[in-house]
Amino acid sequence: MEMHLVHIKNNMSIEDALKESDGLVVMSFIIKKTKGNNQASGWNILAKFLKDIPEKGNSKNLNGEFSLGSLWREADVHHYFYYNGSLTSLPGAKSVILFVFAVPLEISYQV
């Protein structure tokens, strides 16, 4: 599995960011499924919330219980590749700097 965290350049709308060569930064993490119960609590919290929003258009108030940072707290952020690229979906704007982290995050499939 792969997880992308997409960031928009400071104080820009998505429309304006798509016009810039560095308007978006994407952090890409490869996820490796492991046995056991070694996963960070952030993944458990995310799984719990996702069970509560099974359909498109559903929403759930997180009440400050969840942080994106908790998903990659254990990541090796010192080893990565980066390149200028484009969106893989329409409009395919060439406005992305992509960081691909070399070491997969190991996440238990047991929650």
From TrEMBL:
Domain of life of the native organism: Eukaryota
Domain Alpha-carbonic anhydrase: 1-111
Gene3D superfamilies according to UniProt: Alpha carbonic anhydrase (3.10.200.10)
Family annotation (SUPFAM superfamilies): Carbonic anhydrase
InterPro entries reported for this sequence: CA_dom, CA_dom_sf, Carbonic_anhydrase_a-class
GO molecular function list: carbonate dehydratase activity; zinc ion binding
GO cellular component terms listed in the entry, alphabetical order: plasma membrane
Entry similarity comment: Belongs to the alpha-carbonic anhydrase family.
PANTHER family xrefs: CARBONIC ANHYDRASE
Name of the featured protein: Carbonic anhydrase 6-like
Organism encoding this protein: Notechis scutatus
Phylogenetic classification of the source organism: Eukaryota, Metazoa, Chordata, Craniata, Vertebrata
Gene this chain is encoded by: LOC113429054
